[in-house]
Amino acid sequence: MASISSTETRTTESGLAAGLAAYLLWGFLPLLFDLLRHVGAMTLVADRTLWSLLLVGTIMIVGGRTAEVRSILRDRAAVRSMALAAFVLAANWLIYVYAVETNQVLEASFGYFINPMVNVAIGMLVLGERLNRWQGVSVAIAVVAIGIQAVGLGGVPYIALGLALTFALYGYLRKTAKASSATGLFVETLILSPAALAYLLFSFVIDGGVGVHADPYTLFLLVMTGPATAVPLLLFAYAVQRLRLTTIGMLQYLAPSIAFILAIVVFGEHLNWVRLLSFGMIWLSLIVYTADSVVRRRRGAA
User: CA-to-CA distance for 69 and 123, rounded, in angstroms?
Assistant: First the structure.
């Protein structure tokens, strides 16, 4: 019994370490994108797609997992679902890179904070799920927070809503595709790669050369977008297999919290009292939602 308990503890600890590493890497991702501000969102996403494809493809070949890819590609329904997921993911990447380029990281972090509430909304609209009392309260608070954020911005928070909607929709599509994290990312980037390659070749023709890729430092940073994309996702997949979903749910707030701090401390974005109030409301919403999830899981386990 002691041996089993010790093994479970080590498994949980390794899962927690992987989960923390994944969300830390995601949280600091704006720093890399900020260094590539001069590249442009479309070029950055195209490079990110191709370098991710190369890295994950290598992992799949070395790990002897090409059979998984062939199995997915033979399933037309899975390919259609993952194609849609791929384009939603590309939209999410474009919005996030644009947010960093235009000094709107604060709004981007707000988008990922409201993501759990958007997941709940998708569950209601698509899966016919019903909210309990406290879930309803948390969603209502989140709606108020979005309204306050709109007042603080002087308009609709398109970046925040765009990130939350695309990420939630991507998560839903990936669940229905029933592919592992690495296999899924490989197929998605494989689907996007023709468009990414075509865009880069078109830009090379227009520029009369390889453009920003001629600079070794910029090229190195662009290559690093591959591991910056794939490594956190693989760590996350490892963590999900070893941790309770409640723990994963708590960890997911780490990345937008880091982005929130970076926006103010590093990128110098202004946090007025209206926007601070909106963040306060969304944090309250998340506390209510998380507390309700923990209580319901404990009752289910009892």
Answer: 29
